[in-house]
Structure formats: structure tokens, C-alpha cells
Amino acid sequence: MMVRKRVVVLYGGRADEHSISCVSAAGVLNAIDTDRYEPIPIGITKDGRWTIGGQDPRQWGLGDASLPTVQITEGSRPIILDMARGRDGFLIGDHDDLVSGVEPSKAFGSLEPLGHVDAVFPVLHGPYGEDGTLQGLLEMMGLPYVGCGVFASAACMDKHYTKILLSQAGIPVAPGITIDSREQRSGADLLAAVQKAELHYPLFVKPSRAGSSFGVVKVEEPQAEALAAAVAEAARHDWRVLIEEGIEGREIECAVLASSKDRKPRTAWPGEVVLDKADQDEAFYDFDSKYVDSSASHVEVPANLPEETLQKVRDLAAKAFRTVDGAGLSRVDCFVTSEGRVIVNEINTMPGFTPISMYAKAWEATGITYTDLITELIESVSA
Predict the structure, then answer these.
(1) Is 5 annotated in some ligand binding site?
(2) Binding of Mg(2+) 1: at which residues (predicted)?
(3) What's the confidence (pLDDT) of residue 199?
(4) What pLDDT, on the 0 to 100 scale, is given for residue 276?
(5) What is the pLDDT of residue 11?
(6) What was the pLDDT predicted at 104?
(7) 259 assigned binding-site residue
(8) What is the predicted pLDDT for the residue at 282?
(9) Neighbours of 233 (CB within 10 A)
(10) CA gap 328, 381 in Å, rounded
């Protein structure tokens, strides 16, 4: 009988995308090959506490009345990390340590080892999960993990620096400027900065380090008040704010997989999220239409484009992935204009990973099942 590899599946976390991570983890836990792997779900609360034994994430979905979150329950116990023990460094504390105001010096009196861990699958989106911080922690512990390393994770979490890297590699990106919102600027100042950069409306104002369309505002015309309000909304998520020219084009997403040791990227057929609402001309693909309102959109893979254009997207996605030193997986989001120009919008190093997410759907359409995808990713780091 084959000895199963023990894989910690991390989910939840401190980012705005906490609930999306919970649902992605549900997908992974329900599809993982349990003949090969023993999955160990570890949830991270919104305030950053690592727990085991709480609610079973396998039951969660986005159709729930409320979006799922990691809560402390009767069965929850804290996970404590001992850096020096590496793959044996996950320790389980007492439930009382989670809920009582014990002095730190007296806390965690009795710890039991979780046992040897072969790999970690950090199904975490956004800051403190996808931005290089967790990756650095796992590197220090010598723990193999699925996904991009410290540099690629950090660089792709910050859209400002992603654009700098891609531009240097000759990859087209949307024209835009970056604002430090901590420097108080009037709407007139912002308008002047946009005019100086010769950006065309509509504009998209977005936080540099956030995901899942949090804090993204569309500004249709040059109005100081509207622009200042958009920057203020984005600044709620990050002090660094991008003001980008809206690209007249279709949003095409390309899944990249580098499961072999040589990190050679493979690309799936690019897909498109098609908005179904009648007012789609007024809309853009916001958080609700991505995750909450299932009638708002559907996924088409491959996207309805000439094969030559689809191949151009794949080639550019692979180049972008290599440019940022990607590993494991990423989803490269592009714009395709009516003339067939391809512009890279952003790179998601841990894209939504539910069975109906674009990433999984794209690979399914390209010939790799969701379960096999999970297997490939784990095997590439734990073999």
C-alpha cells in the first residue's frame, strides 16, 4: 500500500479575499486524490490565528446565505509553528489557548505534534497569503509549498511593480500612473496628473495591492470630485493607488501551469468571463459578478477568438510568467482589443481555485481534470 503524503491545506487568512480562499479550499479538499494524499485543513482566522479542528471547509460554497469565514468553534485548536523543526514544526495547542486571555508566557502549556508534513498547499488569496510573506515563512521552515516563490508572489501582488517588470520585458501593459494616497491631493491635482500623463477616459482606479476587484472604481469622465472619490475608495485597501486608462477590449484570462522541476510553463486555452446582465455595457466585472451573483456571468473556454489570437495570448502569458520568475501556477489576465492587440493586465499567483473558477475550467478544457491538476501541483514540490 502506498504511503500517503501529508499535505497541509491552508485557507482563510487576513485578506479581503478570506471567503474566496475558504471556497477555493473546499474545492481542493473535495477533489484531492485521497489515495495519494492525506489532506490536513488548517484555517487562518481574519485576525491571523492558525486553527485546526473547526468547521469542515468541505461543506462551504459561494451559494451559501453568507460567505464562509474561519470561526473559532468548540473543536478548534491552535496551530503553533516551531521554525527550527521544519517539516515537523506544526504543533497543536489546547482549545483554551485560543479563547482565554492567558498570559503569553503561560500559554501553550501542552503541545502535541501534528506530525511530519510533506508539502503545503496555501490556498490563500491576497495579502499575508499570496504576497510573499507566507512564502518566506515556509522557505525559512524548509517546507515545500505549491505556487510561486517569494519574489514572484510579492511582485505580482503589487500591480505597480508587476507593470514595471512586464514593461522592461517588452510586454504591453495599460497606460497609467501611480498615486501615493498618503500625500493629500485635491481632485484638481489628480485631474492635472491624469492630463499630464495623457490618459484617456474612462479610467479605472484601483489599489495596487488588493485582489478580487476590491476597491476598483470606474471613472467615466474628467470630474475632479469623481476622481478624488475613486482614489479615496481604492485607498481604503492600499495607500498605493493606480489610475489606469480603460482598455477598449475583451478580458481574456490564461491559466499557466509549471508543474515540472524545470519550471517550464504550459498554458491552457484562454478563457473569457462573459457578462450576462442586460446592463453589461455599464458594468465591469466586480466582486459580486465574480463571486456572489451566479446569473451575472459565465465562463467560456476557449474564448471566442481566432486561434491565432488565442495563441498570441498563450505565448504572452508564458512570457509574463517567466518574466516574474513564476512557479507552479498563475493566471495571466489580458485585454484583447478589436485589432487583436494583447495587453497584460495582471498576474494572479494563486487564482481562484474552485472547480468552477476560470483556472480549473481552462485546464479541464485543455485536457487536465481538477483532481489531476491538484496532483501535478503537489507532486512538483513534494516528489
Answers:
(1) no
(2) 333, 346
(3) 97
(4) 76
(5) 98
(6) 47
(7) no
(8) 46
(9) 17
(10) 9
CA dist., res. 134 & res. 225, Å (int): 39
Q: Give, in words, the CATH class of 176-245.
A: alpha beta
Confidence at residue 67, expressed as pLDDT on a 0 to 100 scale: 87
Grid-cell match 463571486, residue found = 291
Q: Is 380 annotated as a binding residue?
A: no
333 DSSP β-pair partners: 253, 346
Q: How far apart are CA 369 and CA 165, in angstroms?
A: 32
Q: Which of 17, 130, 253, 376 is catalytic?
A: 17
Q: Is 348 annotated as a binding residue?
A: yes
357 catalytic? Reply is yes
The residues of the chain that CATH labels 3.30.470.20 are 155-172+248-349
Residues of the chain with pLDDT under 50: 104-105, 280-283, 285, 288-289
Q: Yes or no: is domain 155-172+248-349 CATH 3.90.1280.10? A: no
**Residue 90: helix, strand or coil by DSSP?**
strand
The Cα 279–Cα 193 span in angstroms is 31
- The CATH number for 5-146, chosen from 3.40.50.20, 3.90.580.10, 3.30.230.10, 3.20.20.70, is 3.40.50.20
| List 19, 153, 357, 382, catalytic entry | 357
- pLDDT single digits (tens) 263-304: 789 999 999 988 876 554 444 545 544 555 556 678 899 999
Q: Are 308 and 315 in contact (CB under 8 A)?
A: no
At 335, list the grid cell.
485585454
Tell me if 151 is assigned to a ligand binding site. no
Q: Mapping DSSP to helix (H, G, I), strand (E, B) and coil, where does residue 271 land? A: strand
Is 212 among the annotated ligand-binding positions?
Answer: yes
CB 52 within 8 Å of CB 44: no
Name the catalytic one among 21, 76, 212, 289: 212
- Which cell is 38 given? 492525506
